Amino acid sequence: MIYLETGDLYYNTQVYFRKNLMDDLPNDDKAWQKAYHAWLKTQGAVIVNSSFDLIRNALGVAPGYDKFGFENESDATLFVLKWA
């Protein structure tokens, strides 16, 4: 598995998700988490939680601690090119 830090990449995906996908969802952080993780999966990414017991944000991510995980190197490369 290929791991990428959630820093700036996460911020950019979060902004896109908020502006383009969140308005169609109920005002519920559980629905936001499910939709965000499903959207990431369409891009070949999953959130890999850190081993620390941390408080996560409304999208279920602890930025700077959790990582994006990819099965394919090509998915990781496209993700970086798109969201960097």
Main sheet? 3 strands, antiparallel
Q: How are strands sequenced across the largest beta sheet? A: 1-3-2
Helix content: 40-55%
Tally of discrete structural domains: 1
Tell the overall outline: globular
Class based on secondary structure composition and strand pairing? alpha+beta
Mean pLDDT, to the nearest integer, reads 92
Q: Unreliable segments (pLDDT under 50, ≥5 consecutive)? A: none
H-E string: EHHEEH
- Radius of gyration from the alpha-carbon trace, in angstroms: 12 Å
Number of strands: 3
SS field, number of helical segments: 3
Q: Which strand-content bin applies to the residues?
A: 5-15%
Q: Distance N terminus to C terminus?
A: 20 Å
Walkthrough of the structure:
The protein is of the alpha+beta class and 84 residues long. The chain has one domain (2-83). Helices cover 46% and strands 14% of the residues. The protein contains three helices and three strands. Strands 1-3-2 form a three-stranded antiparallel sheet. The radius of gyration is 12 Å and the shape is globular. It starts with a strand and ends with a helix.
